[in-house]
Amino acid sequence: MERSRVLLEAARIIRERSEELATMETINNGKSIFEARVDIEISWQTLEYYAGLAGSMAGQHVQLPGGSFGYTRREPLGVCVGIGAWNYPFQIACWKSGPALASGNAMVYKPSPFTPITVVLLAEIFREAGAPPGLFNVVQGGASTGEFLSKHPDVAKISFTGSVPTGSKIMEMASKGIKPVTLELGGKSPLIIFSDSDLENAVNGAMMANFLTQGQVCCNGTRVFVQSNILQKFTEEVVKKVKKIKIGDPLLEDTRMGPLINRPQLEKVFAFIKGAKEQGAKVLTGGEPYIPEDQKLKAGFYMTPCVLGDCKDDMTCVKEEIFGPVMSILPFDTEEEVLERANNSTYGLAAGVFTRDIQRAHRVVASLQAGMCFINNYNVSPVELPFGGYKKSGFGRENGQVTIEYYSQLKTVCVEMGKVESVF
Ligand SMILES: NC(=O)C1=CN([C@@H]2O[C@H](COP(=O)(O)OP(=O)(O)OC[C@H]3O[C@@H](n4cnc5c(N)ncnc54)[C@H](O)[C@@H]3O)[C@@H](O)[C@H]2O)C=CC1
């Protein structure tokens, strides 16, 4: 209950300061203030949710023959390390610290060097909320700091969000100390649109699946499979909507797309689009540098959101995570065919299906190789639901009740009520 009170108080402070925190997150990352507000809301909800679970953690009591019994205790792991990515700086820190602190651990958190700011505010908020000094700590730095933390003998667990190559290195380092890891890695998730779906809803779903945070979202549904008989209509509607996305100063109320995180990321995205064209894809809209009229934004890393048509499964833009505002549209004919193609990926973070046929919806998600599946929506992540990947998208879960298991260990106590029956 004590931990719960601290988390509830931290959630209250975040709520109270949400406008200031959202503004800082926009400055930190470049996402629109509109989206940053949603991130902050999800963040305090996460702390409230785990505050609720903190007081209800308990073990089991098991009766054994002769009056003997056993019981289990759920114990903290110790010092947990959180290593975050730059796309959801504050939210990722809350997704990790909420369950970590609720379970009784301390946390050392390293944000991405591209977004160092808001997690420091979170640390201040935890202190103000009554967390003892040293319970939640922020260490700034890049790869070498992350490696130092991952190898440190006093660290009991590492929870990482980021790219597959770095996730693999962290797992390797953790293996030396036999430390558990949670890996939230990349994706190239499929979004399947059947011709019986509500078209407007499906178009909106595809927009939500591709263009939040300038497309820099791990669970984005960037391979949009559309049943051939609605391909043309769907594509026209999507392109119309994408052209209307308001790009510009992320601090303005009506902006829906700010700049990408940095120059290398922008160039990486352009290189993918260039490669896509060379491999035969057609740019239906966007994919160009965008220079806002506002003089002070001229050097920003802006681009126009892009839709690629005439895509084939073996193109690089369809196989690899771009991590920018680029949607690839792929036609399909049958359910069986699209399932095979959707699963033909080394990733397995998320997947979505739009259809009005309820049997088909559940049949399809049952066969999709992805940890987070959406039916008739995309990219909603309520804290009550576990989130995490299959295959190279990682393992372990964030959010939901199950995450307590990833931040604690189980002790079994066996109690003898009779005499020891020695065999010697
Ligand atoms: N799917 C996802 O959620 C994310 C994917 N990415 C992808 O990764 C690419 C590279 O972006 P980065 O920010 O460099 O991602 P990254 O995965 O290398 O970095 C993520 C975090 O890990 C830390 N880190 C880097 N190397 C480390 C190491 N050897 N040991 C311990 N910690 C380490 C970073 O400082 C950062 O805090 C992006 O272009 C994007 O495509 C990046 C961030 C999130």
From TrEMBL:
Molecular function, one GO term: oxidoreductase activity, acting on the aldehyde or oxo group of donors, NAD or NADP as acceptor
Enzyme active site: E184
Keyword Oxidoreductase: yes
Aldehyde dehydrogenase domain ranges (all copies): 2-413
Keyword Oxidoreductase: yes
CDD domains registered for this protein in UniProt: ALDH_F9_TMBADH (cd07090)
SUPFAM superfamilies: ALDH-like
Keywords noted in UniProt: Oxidoreductase
UniProt xrefs under Gene3D superfamilies: Aldehyde Dehydrogenase, Chain A, domain 1, Aldehyde Dehydrogenase, Chain A, domain 2
Pfam families reported in the protein's UniProt record: Aldedh
UniProt-listed InterPro entries: Ald_DH/histidinol_DH, Ald_DH_C, Ald_DH_CS_CYS, Ald_DH_CS_GLU, Ald_DH_N, Aldehyde_DH_dom
Family, similarity comment: Belongs to the aldehyde dehydrogenase family.
Protein name per the record: Aldehyde dehydrogenase domain-containing protein
Protein source organism: Engystomops pustulosus (Tungara frog)
